[in-house]
Amino acid sequence: CGSANKNIGDAFLLVWKFPDEEICHPTINDVDVRNTKVVQNICDLAVISFLKIYARINKDIKMLAYRDHKKLCERIP
User: Fold this and answer.
1) 51, 36 in Cβ contact below 8 A?
2) Which of 1, 24, 64, 70 has its CA 20 to 30 A from that of 16?
3) Residue 60 neighbours by CB distance under 10 Å
4) Which stretches of the chain are DSSP H helices?
5) Strand partners for 33
6) Using one digit for the tens of pLDDT, what is the confidence trace for 1-27?
7) Cβ contact 16:1 at 8 Å
8) Residues 17 and 1 sit within 8 Å (Cβ to Cβ)
9) Residue 29 CB coordination number (10 Å)
């Protein structure tokens, strides 16, 4: 369902795609998703994956070493 789509330099773009049957077009210029268990599950999984990434970064010794990296701290306050 979700996947890392693109490295855009300072960040990664993570994408979760809804199944076509969950997408509706109320008007020609509008797109919406239905309020179903499938959509709710995908949204929940997106949040959970973010939290897992955040937790993993904050537990990794090598990643934690970058917290005090002078140039990174100047760039990302």
Assistant:
1) no
2) 64
3) 11
4) 37-59, 61-64, 70-75
5) 23
6) 666 676 777 777 788 889 999 999 888
7) yes
8) yes
9) 6
3-state secondary structure of 49: helix
Whole-angstrom distance, CA of residue 51 vs CA of residue 46: 9
Model pTM score: 0.68
- Residue pair 32/19 in contact (Cβ under 8 Å)? The answer is no
Q: Is 5 helix (H, G, I), strand (E, B) or coil?
A: strand
Structure tokens at 30: 């509008």
Q: Give tens-digit pLDDT for 35-65.
A: 999 999 999 999 998 899 889 988 999 888 8
